[in-house]
Amino acid sequence: MTTITAFETSPDRGRGLARDMQVRWALEEVGQPYAVRLVSFKAMKEPAHRAVHPFAQIPTYEEGELALFESGAILLHIAERHGVILPKEIHARARAIMWMFAAVDTVKAPIIEREAAILIEREQSWFAERQVMLDSNVRRRLGELSARLGDREWLDGEFSIGDIMMIGLLRRLEGTALLEEYPNLIAYVARGAERPAFKRAFDAQFAVFADRQASG
Question: Is the pTM of this model over 0.90?
Answer without folding.
Answer: yes
